[in-house]
């Protein structure tokens, strides 16, 4: 689908028409970051921003979120039909549907029997054509993510977008007027268009203190910085305003005004959502998927009872002032459930309820812990073999992180050697992927080391030594005189 664009020089006229006011700031093209907001005059330093004039004020009726889409549906009965058929699953899904319709309307101005134009129809024309988030990277560029925490996440996202697009296509095709507009008249909307809209939403939505997850025109022109000079807020009238940060030491004319997209986002999250990594302001953390043991007969029941995607979280703590040491923490609630079995006191029972429905219940040491399936780390604490279970968990997590490191290490050369046409990889994608690889390699190495320290310490624990001794004796008894020196298989 061709999305018409307008030069950014036209934005002040659109803003004037829609009661958006700029106060000493303007939107311009910035070096390497697309559009950005710069000061149009010397802005004075201020400690108290409560009486400072807002740099930007956006009326509430321009804020785009689930409530706004619902309002729009009241004015447009055709859109309401579409929203009834597909919408109301999440704010994101509703806004994406709205954006799809508005984009199609913008590309077919005046030729459609359905859809009502509104300020967003025109505003969308000011937005950049693409964002460098990995869902929009070429397959060749995505090879650069192999071994990073984004490898599985991006694949999963593309599959989810595919399913979502299929649903939109199927449900809207049943409505003749929408079938004509979206698919039949030149069959213009493609899967890539849907990925683009998702990327546009992800990279431009923000969390408003009162209105929640929303898109806000013009405020979405602000770039991110580790040392932001401004922040957004909502007034009692629900207008969205941009204010200088308290303590900002004046903003000279021409300087870029920035906000923070969130200080606790990891490099992978920044790349995934915004298409760039600012090493100065990313949390040193990552999240990896964790697969249950393939030969565990309880694996399926454990997954169902856990109820979430099993993961390992790794994060470097803030450096303690002065000592130069930043410890690495890890956590995996599923690994603790994964590492207990029937002989430890875990049991699954399928209970029939009074209405005939069957329900899976989890028992630990004869106690029903169905609601605590994610809390086995704590539940196991009082078990006589707590240290043994912990050793299994530490071993499992360490193995998973080692395997990831190996993939990360061996994959570095793969894309460069295997690429048929490396020159087609965009420089920004290569730079971001390499930075992510470097950040995640360092973090994984530190985590493996931390786990090794805990493992060594657990191997000297009295209960662990006794347990391993018994296991070894049992094994050597079964295997005749052979003595095993490999007490490390705790799976
Ligand atoms: C909310 S929009 C900001 C306006 C955007 N620059 C534009 O052209 O419309 C977010 C996008 O801006 C870009 N961006 C923001 N901050 C950046 C930064 N510090 N470095 C590089 N790109 C940045 C990224 O492409 C991001 O997805």
From TrEMBL:
PROSITE patterns: SET. It comes from the Eukaryota. Residues 23-262 form the SET domain. One of its GO terms (cellular component) is nucleus. CDD domains: SET_LSMT. GO terms for molecular function: protein-lysine N-methyltransferase activity. This is SET domain-containing protein. It comes from Parachaetomium inaequale. The lineage of its organism: Eukaryota, Fungi, Dikarya, Ascomycota, Pezizomycotina.
